[in-house]
Every structure is written in C-alpha cells, then in structure tokens.
DNA sequence: CCGGATCCTAAGGGATACTG
DNA sequence: CAGTATCCCTTAGGATCCGG
C-alpha cells in the first residue's frame, strides 16, 4: 500500500522520519527479523524456518517470506525435485539491513533496564485511575 | 503485553532477533518516529505536534504520546495555566535511539531504488495470477 | 488547549484443514 | 515438502463528540 517515495512534499525534519519508516515498514512485521536472521547464514528451507522461528504459523511464514522476497530481501530458489525443495537466502541488501540494525540492538540492551523502570514508575503513578 | 525480557530460552541467533524486536516494538507504531523527531529539537506543545506530524488524528497523538511517555522516551511537563500548556520533550534515551536510527535511514536511502525495482520485477513476474 | 470516551473499520495474525 | 484456503479473533487506527 505505502509506496516508497511518499516522503516528499513534507518539507521539514518529518521527511527524515518518513525515511526511517520506509525501512521499518519492511521489517516491522512480527516475524520478518526472525526470518532474516535465520536466512542470513546461508540457504534455509521452508521447514527449517518453521522450526527455527519459534511460534510462527505456517500461514505467516509463507506470507512474510513472500513479502521479503518481493522487497528483494530474500532470494527464493526452487529445486524441481520430488519431494520439492525450496531454499531461501538473504540478499546482500538484506545483510546490510541487518547490520544497520546492530545499533538498534545495542540501544535496546543498554536501556532495557531503564525502560522497564520507566514503565513501572508510570504504572505506579497512574495506578489510582 | 510483550515484556522486555522475553528473549531468553531461545538459545540461538533468534535471541538477537528478539532483541531487535524489543527496540522496534517501541518505535514500530505508525506515528512514534514522527513524534520523536518533532520532540527531539526541544519542548513541543500538543497542538504543534498535531500540525507537524501530518495526518495524525487527535486520538492517535494522545495514545502515542502516552506510550512514549510510559517507556521513558518522552517527558511531559504540564504548566498549570489557563488555558493549559503542556510540553513534551525527548529524553536523552530517546535521542540516543534516534541516532541509532541513522544507520537505518542511510540504508533506506541507498536501496530505495533497488527495492522498488525488486517490487516491480516481482509484480511483473507474478502478474498472470 | 489538551485531552478522554465512544464507535467503527481494517489490517495483522493464529488455527486448522486441504493439496500438488 | 512446501505451500493454499478458510475462518475467526484481536489489535491498530480513524472519526466524532464531549469536558475541564
């Protein structure tokens, strides 16, 4: 639905925010990251993904794979054998994306404690209503 | 719903993915980034945000502000005047987060073209069904 | 000016059963 | 093995109106 270049005609720092969302939209789903991580270390088969990405349903696995493939983040290779064999591989673009997420990982680890404290404090504060 | 430390008991590289989602969950909403960007440059009032963050509804502005405040990313200061004046400011933690997103912004800009080409190619390929 | 309360729609996502 | 197809529920989010 949201195209890539809807970041024009804003004119402010909000254009920056829009560019960020551009990236987040491709990785924002519940399962995208888990799949990308699993596919980053080489070709992975459908069933392998189903096991490695804990809790994912067959349906969501298929859907997320299709989206990632469509965005050029995964490459899908079908081996015309019986039984069928399909391998998914992260593209260079996807690997770059994953490395860009390292900064985010660091941030999350550094502030994990502060965040839950902030939440606890907020909830305490707003307990009586 | 999702607590902060649900990343244990996985044991694989998937724990990494889980940490990434930890960060994304706090910024994954449709409006969070836009609000943070606007609040990054100093105190902003409610109505200012309503104008700067284009397209946001009153309801979502309030909700997102509350969530960001609860996570310790925004500070809310109420001036007991008439009419009321409320200022929102990004906390240092939020500023760090924003800087961590720069890598993501760069990625989005670098691959913007490649992504839309990949989409076009995929859609062309899968046109006949 | 800064919201809260209510109602409603749409999108995300889970469970399950079926198929080439 | 690698998916489709269906059904259903839950959540995000928009529209609108009311209140301190």
Automatic annotation (TrEMBL), chains A, B:
Residues that span the membrane, as ranges: none
Keyword field: DNA-binding, Transcription, Transcription regulation
Segments forming domain HTH hxlR-type: 18-116
InterPro entries named among the record's database cross-references: HTH_HxlR, WH-like_DNA-bd_sf, WH_DNA-bd_sf
Pfam families (UniProt xref): HxlR
Molecular function as annotated in GO: DNA binding
The UniProt record lists the keyword Nucleus: no
Protein name, per record: HxlR family transcriptional regulator
Organism: Micromonospora palomenae
